[in-house]
Design goal:
The protein has 171 residues and is an all-alpha fold. Helix content is 89%, strand content 0%. It has one domain (31-170). It is rod-shaped.
């Protein structure tokens, strides 16, 4: 068996001059040039599109980070505002409780004033009853005085008649 070396085989890429001319003639056709131009344009367009997508994704990543930072700061602000509102609600509740206590005290004072007015009304009623008793006594006294006046008038009349009789007899 004989050994075959690489230089004994012809290269599949080696072509004859005639083949090279035929390839050159094909590549120079207008259709091939148009196809190559279109392919080149498509390749450049795709490269541009992918470049834009890459820039957009980098920008989106930066925007996303900025949004996340902004959301974190907003959440922190919201948390702070929530705590402040909670403190304000606590203060407001305490103030309302104090107001309710004051209103209860005022209600108690009004109840005390009402009881005092009732006591004063009862005292006025007692005074009115005493005045009524005094009025009845004055009426009784007036009737007694009227009766005494009547008796005195009758006695006066009797005395006048007696004096007249005595004067008539003495004359």
């Amino acid at each position: 068996m004989t050994a075959i070396t690489a230089d004994q085989y012809h290269s599949p890429f080696e072509r004859s001059n005639r083949d090279r001319d035929r390839i050159r003639s094909r590549s120079s056709t207008p259709g091939f040039r148009t196809a190559a131009t279109i392919f080149g344009g498509v390749a450049v367009s795709l490269a541009g599109i992918f470049g834009i997508l890459e820039l957009s994704s980098r920008h989106t990543d930066k925007t996303t980070e900025a949004i996340i930072l902004r959301l974190d700061s907003l959440q922190s602000s919201q948390h702070d505002m929530g705590e402040r509102i909670s403190r304000l609600e606590t203060r407001t509740d305490a103030r309302f409780e104090r107001l309710e206590d004051k209103f209860e005290q005022i209600d108690q004072k009004f109840a005390l004033i009402d009881r005092k007015f009732e006591a004063i009304d009862w005292k006025f009623e007692a005074v009115d009853r005493k005045f009524e008793q005094m009025d009845r006594r004055f009426e009784q006294t007036d009737r007694k005085i009227d009766r005494l006046d009547g008796k005195i008038d009758r006695l006066d009349g009797k005395i006048d008649r007696m004096i007249d009789l005595l004067l008539d007899r003495a004359r």
